[in-house]
Amino acid sequence: MRPTCFPRFPLEQRAQGEQFILQVIIIMAKTVFNKPYTRLWNRPLQIQPLLLRHPRFVWLINKTVSNNRLYYAFSMIIYLLNTVDPNHTFKQKLETLFQKYPNIDRSAMGFPVNWQNEPLWE
């Protein structure tokens, strides 16, 4: 049975594993960065990535997070950046934005309680 997420990808492409995951992460990043922020921060994402079942690198410990919120999309972007450049500054820039705008409701973005304690986000 074909999942409803990313129906335009053929099954042969899904079978290629890591290449497919990379394409999914890139599409997520494109969706997140091209959407006006006023419409994105507190709404479910239209494109929902597949849940990573057996990640090779550090991933989320909390398995109850929703994959249709910005937190999960940011987590996927961080996962990709960690693999290509462990010295990236995405997390620091995001934290700077949170400090600059403290009234942002992170729970509406899908951020769980104690999200900073996730190994991916440390």
What pattern of helices and strands is seen along the backbone?
Answer: HHHHH
Write down the overall mean pLDDT.
76
What Rg, in angstroms, do the CA atoms define? Answer: 15 Å
Approximately what portion of the residues adopt beta-strand conformation? under 5%
Features:
42% helix, mainly alpha, globular, 0% strand, disordered N terminus, 122 residues
Fold and architecture overview:
By secondary structure, this protein is mainly alpha-helical. It has one domain (11-121). 42% of the residues lie in helices and 0% in strands. It has 5 helices and no strands. It has helices at 11-14, 18-34, 37-40, 70-84, 90-100. The longest helix is centred in the N-terminal third of the chain and has 17 residues, at 18-34. It is globular. It starts with 10 loop residues before the first helix and ends in a 22-residue tail after the last helix. 14% of the residues are buried. Mean pLDDT is 76; it is low at 1-7.
Describe the structure in brief.
It is built from five helices and no strands. The protein has helices spanning 11-14, 18-34, 37-40, 70-84, 90-100.
Please give the structural blueprint.
Blueprint: H1 11-14, H2 18-34, H3 37-40, H4 70-84, H5 90-100
Helix pairs in contact: 2-4
